[in-house]
Amino acid sequence: MVGRTGVMAVNSEAVAAEDALRALAHPGKARTAAKYFKTGPGEYGEGDQFYGIRVPQVREVARQFNTLPLDGCVALLQSPYNEARLMALAILVRRFEKGDAATQEAVYTTFMAQRHRVNNWNLVDSSAPFISGPYLLERDRAVLRKLAVSPVMWDRRIAVLSTFAFIRAKDLAETLSLCEMLLADEQDLMHKACGWMLRELGKRDEAALLGFIRTHYSAMPRTMLRYAIEKFEPETRKQLLQGNFSAL
After folding, report:
1. How far apart are CA 136 and CA 143, in angstroms?
2. Which stretches in the chain have pLDDT values below 70?
3. CA 214 to CA 207: how far, in whole Å?
4. Residue of 112, 168, 185, 207 with fewest CB within 10 Å of its CB?
5. What pLDDT sits at residue 10?
6. pLDDT for res 2
7. What is the pLDDT of residue 248?
8. Are 120 and 82 in contact (CB under 8 A)?
9. Residues 160-211: pLDDT tens digits?
10. What b/e sequence results for 25-47 when a residue is b if at least 16 CB atoms lie within 10 Å of its CB, and e otherwise?
């Protein structure tokens, strides 16, 4: 049986959690969010629904339900409302960060099994760097390369954003490899994701970032390049955008 918000009605804790969110709903902000997250026909967030709740409010409700078990989080992830899925992911992230090895494995397994419900950029960005990334830091990362060639854009974004955890550990090779694989990706959201991770990589190793740009300049989407060089000085950005590496 499915409840009015898509949460399985048999999971009373999940229903209570989403009811707490619904009490904060703001129709005007919901309409604004629906436009911002491109929920119209043919757009990347087609069909996503919003309560119109700010992220700090969602996180506050998540703290109130931080003991929600994994099956409750799975139930919340079935909600058509973005904020309910975001809350479930916030609970999973907290559980991963505070948990022992067995808990972390269970959270990672749940996250990966339910990643089809991690289907907007705010959901990916608030979870992959804190669950799949840390879990795979000292493990085989072949799954990320499989996700990077998935026809589902959110899988590809999960792959790239997971490497944020590697970058923080100054392990940069996976980010460079995945960004190279995704140079020809057709989605602007992926160009932004790769550019963002390259920018973060450049904060740790500027030479590695410049080497990547020099090697792949002609193939890099302009959005990816602009995001990657955002932290450079204006004149340096100008030279990089023009492909003028001799001046650097």
Report:
1. 9
2. 1-10
3. 10
4. 207
5. 55
6. 36
7. 73
8. yes
9. 999 999 999 999 999 999 999 999 999 999 999 999 999 999 999 999 999 9
10. eeeebbeebbeebebeeeebbee
Looking at residue 88, its amino acid is A
Measure CA of the first residue to CA of the last residue in the chain; give whole Å.
Answer: 63
Q: Is 8 helix (H, G, I), strand (E, B) or coil?
A: strand
Nearest to 89 by CA among 64, 57, 122: 122
Which H or E run contains 76?
helix 70-77
Q: Residue 245 has which token pair?
A: 């590496």
Least Cα distance to 85 among 44, 38, 45, 145 occurs for: 45
Q: What is the pTM of this model?
A: 0.93
Q: What is the pLDDT of residue 15?
A: 95
Which has the closest alpha carbon to 86: 8, 18, 133?
Answer: 18
- Residue 39 CA: distances (Å) to CA of 20, 48, 142, 164: 24, 6, 32, 27
Q: Helix, strand, coil proportions of the chain in percent (round to 5)?
A: 65, 0, 35
Within a 10 A sphere around the Cβ of 67, how many other Cβ atoms?
9
Residue with tokens 């990547």: 212
User: How many CB atoms are located within 10 Å of the residue 232 CB?
Assistant: 18
Give the sign of the dihedral formed by CA 75, CA 78, CA 84, CA 85. positive
CA distance linking residue 25 with residue 218, whole number of Å: 47
Total number of residues shown for the chain: 248
Quick one: residue 43, left, alpha or beta (phi over 0 = left, psi -120 to 50 = alpha)?
beta
